[in-house]
Amino acid sequence: MEYEAVIGLEVHAELSTKSKIFCSCTTEFGGQPNTHCCPICLGMPGTLPVLNKKAVEYAIKAGLATNCTISLFTKQDRKNYFYPDLPKGYQISQYDLPLCKDGYVEIETENGKKKIRINRIHIEEDAGKLVHSEYGNYSFVDYNRTGVPLIEIVSEPDISSAAEAKAYLEKLKAILQFIGVSDCKMEEGSLRADVNISVRPKGSKQLGERTEMKNLNSFRAVYRAIEAEVARQIEVIKSGGVIHRETRRWDDAKGESYPMRSKEDAQDYRYFPEPDLPPLIIKKELIERLKNELPELPDARKQRYISEYGLPEYDAGVLTSSKELSDFFEEAAKASTNVKAVSNWVMGDMLRILREKNMEIAEIPFPPAYLAKLVALIDKGVINGPTAKKVFEEMFDTGKDPETIVKEQGLEVLNDESVLLEVVERVIQENPNSVADYKKGKKKAIGFLVGQAMKATKGKANPQLINELLIKKLEG
């Protein structure tokens, strides 16, 4: 019997407000433990929360950008559970009246476009963080993150594979970054996902029992966890076992998951309306204003790159996968007459160097216009391809203008025929075997000779001119 996966994601995104959701403490990442907190976010007796208006507006923007309906009447609820990183013993969240509902995002799959429905987006406060000691069987609690505003984006179980889950997460991340409501830095916990997974016989309409893996904070972890859990569940079922509804912990280093606890149901949290906060009434005028403030979204920008710049769909998709990447490309493209070349440099050498240097796009030490200048130097024949790569590396190291680097290091292409002719004659004299091969009809031997000439000129020669001069000498 063949089985298929049924997957739903609960994605938590920290909102980029300057202060927390119910107090004026900073949301800045890091800091000494327990220095970004106050009696309100620590839940001290006698304190009262005040809802952050900007957090609500950001959540509404996220709902509009994901095609949700915005509730005109909503409220906050207490979600009761006891855990060391939750100082109040409850979390202020939303239960039956979420701020946003019934939306969707569209992803690309191997079978074409697919809509992943969004059940709801609600606002809530983040919990603190446990810091586990390496030297003993104990943990510390850092409450700096407590009260940072979150949105939780809950999908319907429309996802069928690890690849689709990754595509869905990438799309959500791009949307949230483009509209400026979250930085989505997964390494800082700004974006993380709980994954609900079940399997069933292929073609069946009945859902299988599900398990959950919590707080996965990288695309790689989500992908690998889903692949492993689907395989585990199929193995259990085929061997006659039963899938238990439980929360499991994913160990990315070992590529395995372990049971943590039985999965809670909504009634286990004993939700009730938050008595310290009044219901929230959203005016239509506010929704309309926030809708008008939305910038160009990733899908719209992708289509514009295809129609305006003539880029292939694949290129446009890569370039709009993150706001920072898209903004860098756009600025370079506006300063260039060869947009496809700019696209190739961004997607190729630039992303490669960023990976090698473990840099963020914001850390690139030169402006996008310098990339446009580099492309122009190539197109004008001032430098050749191999030299351009060296110049680009130097730009990353020094932040200098490519024209300055070329002048300082004397990297202009050698086009002087008299100089190149001497190089060609020397290469012919030093490589008699390759010359003989060429004259016997092995035309590929010319490539080796061109390479030797380029080596002799330290890559500065015009390869096309070298090729022409070699052929003229060998066949003359």
Automatic annotation (TrEMBL):
Question: One GO MF term, please?
Answer: glutaminyl-tRNA synthase (glutamine-hydrolyzing) activity
Family affiliation = Belongs to the GatB/GatE family. GatB subfamily.
Protein purpose: Allows the formation of correctly charged Asn-tRNA(Asn) or Gln-tRNA(Gln) through the transamidation of misacylated Asp-tRNA(Asn) or Glu-tRNA(Gln) in organisms which lack either or both of asparaginyl-tRNA or glutaminyl-tRNA synthetases. The reaction takes place in the presence of glutamine and ATP through an activated phospho-Asp-tRNA(Asn) or phospho-Glu-tRNA(Gln).
- What does the record note on quaternary structure? Heterotrimer of A, B and C subunits.
What keywords sit in the KW lines? ATP-binding, Ligase, Nucleotide-binding, Protein biosynthesis, Transferase
**Protein known as:** Aspartyl/glutamyl-tRNA(Asn/Gln) amidotransferase subunit B
Catalysed reaction equations from the record: L-aspartyl-tRNA(Asn) + L-glutamine + ATP + H2O = L-asparaginyl-tRNA(Asn) + L-glutamate + ADP + phosphate + 2 H(+); L-glutamyl-tRNA(Gln) + L-glutamine + ATP + H2O = L-glutaminyl-tRNA(Gln) + L-glutamate + ADP + phosphate + H(+)
One Pfam entry for this protein is GatB_Yqey
Residues covered by the Asn/Gln amidotransferase domain: 327-474
Identify the coding gene: gatB
Q: Where are the transmembrane segments?
A: none
According to its UniProt record, the EC number is 6.3.5.-
Spell out the HAMAP family in the cross-references: GatB
- GO annotation terms (biological process): glutaminyl-tRNAGln biosynthesis via transamidation; translation
UniProt xrefs under NCBIfam families = gatB (TIGR00133), PRK05477.1-2 (NF004012), PRK05477.1-4 (NF004014), PRK05477.1-5 (NF004015)
SMART domains assigned = GatB_Yqey (SM00845)
Coiled-coil segments: none
